[in-house]
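Q: How would the C-alpha cells look for this protein?
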Amino acid sequence: MKIKKRKKTAKGGSKQRHSMLHKYHDELEWDALRQHVERLNALGRVLYVEDVAVDIDQIVDRHFVCDARRCINWKNDPEATYAPGGPRLAGIDTIPIQDQSCCSRFSVPITREGEQRVFRNIGAIVDELPEDHPLKEGDSVEWEAVFQYDEDDNQRSLRMTGALGACLFNFYEDGRGYCAIHRAALKVGASPASWKPVTCLLWPLAVDRFKRDDDSYAWYLTVYCKENADLFEQDQDRPAPVCMDDDSKEYPPVYESMRDELEHLFGRDWYRKLLRDIDRLLVTHLEEEAHEEKR
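A: Here is the predicted structure in C-alpha cell form.
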C-alpha cells in the first residue's frame, strides 16, 4: 500500500512535527525507566552518586554473595541448591545434574573488546579447564570454538556447551562450579573484572541509562531480580536465580560483595563517594529512628 505525502499546512509545521516525534520517542522509549527512577527517588529510595542513580533497596539493602555451590543440583546432595551454607558433599563422586547458575541460565553477549579480553589470556584460561575439555584438543584455539554469531540478532556471544548447557568456560570441581576466566586471573594476581566480558562482570548488577529532562543521560544501577522483572523483560516463567532469592543477612550487602566490579565500571573515586553517601544515608536513618522513638 502506497502512502501519499501530505503537504505542509503551515510554516514551521515540519519542525513542529519533528519535535512531536522526539517527544513521542522519548515517552515510549525512555520514560519507562526514567519514570521508574523518579518514582523511587520520590520515595527516597535512590542515591545519586554523580550521574549514577543507585537503587537503595537492591544495591544498599540487599545482601548477596556468589556461591556456585548453591545454584547447582548435585547427584548425591539434592538439597544443595537451597542450602544457604552450601551443599553437604557426599564424597568425591558428587556430580552436577542440574545447573541453575547465571553461567548456565543466560547467554553471554560479547563485544569486540570482550573478545579481545578473552583471547588476550586464552592460554592461561584454557589451562584451568579439565583435561578432557574440548578446548584442550589441538595446538591452538580458534575463534569459532569460543564464540558464536547470530545473524538474526547481529550479535556475538560465548558458546554454551556441555550436558548442562553452561558457558564453555564453566566447569565443576570439588562440589561447586568454577569459571576458568575468573580462576586464571586470580592465579596470576589480576582482577577477574579486567579479564571477564562485561556481561559476566556485571551479574547480578543491572546497569541501564535513561534520559533526563535536560537531554543528558544518567545511569540506573540495580540488580536483576524478580522485583525488576518487568523493567528488564526477564523471563517470567523461569524462577529467579537462587542467589537473588537468598537474601541472608549473613551475606554482605551488594555494594560490598560487588566492590571490584563497581570500581571497574565507575572508578575507585566513584566507589569512595558511594561509601561516603551510604554512611550519610545510614546516619540519617539512625537519626530518624531515634526521633521516632522519642515521640
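The mean pLDDT is 77.

The chain has two domains: 34-64+204-294, 72-191.

Upvote if useful.
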